[in-house]
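User: Before I run my own analysis I want an independent prediction to cross-check against. Here's the chain; please return only the structure tokens and, at the end, one sentence I can use as a sanity check.
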Amino acid sequence: MSKKQAPKPSKPKSKRVGKDPAGEKDAKRAKRERRPGELSRPQKVVIIAFIVIFAFSTLAGAIASVVQSDNQTVEYNVDYVDSQYESTVADLESKVEADPSDTDSLLSLAQNCTSWGRMVGMLAQTDDERSHGTELLQRALGYYDQYLELSDTPEARTERALCEYYLGETDQAVADLEAVTQASPEYAPAWADLGMLYEAQGSTDQAVAAYEQAVANDPDDEAGAKSYAEGRLESLQGDSADGSADDGSDDAGTDGTDTTDTGADGATNDAGASE
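Assistant: Structure tokens:
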């Protein structure tokens, strides 16, 4: 009797560890059921990363712009000065043309042209630029004259005299300021500016007298004349002390400190006041 061969043992089927067939089916079903236009997770990650990078790059650009603005240097020349005044002066000229009796615009126009011309004159490098500055100052004089015909004030006359000084007409400016101090002796800025012009002429004693009057007429420094004049007096008197002789000052007027009748053309006495 033949023996039956024992069946070969079948290999046990290996089980997948950690895999859930039901879960895999659900995941596949979810992928298949993604709504139209919905982004996958990798796509979302890429987009978020792009947004973050873009935000940082934009912020960096903004910071760079601020730093560049803070560190930006302006080439301070005649062209730059022109750009700062042209529009303002043009607007004021239009107002004056429309209303020649507009004293506020006239005075502002004269003041702006004075400042503009003064700055151009300081920065001028060529003959054309110097001529440009001179023309602006001459325009300012014309506007001051128009203003003074309507409103004769010591303020405008003082500013006009300084405009003449900027044009190099120092003697005329001094004469005009002396006239202001005679007509309005209480107007301290005229005394302070007159002292400055006396200094420019080398008339130290006259400058001291004028500065003293500026201090006396602006005791509370409301016009700023007192502080300016005191600063100049301190400087001038310091220079005088450094250069004074050792043998005293018994003879009045021999040491250069006597200020009697120091006003130009006899316009002031020893205290600098108008007669």
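Sanity check: Residues 268 and 274 are 5 Å apart (CA to CA).
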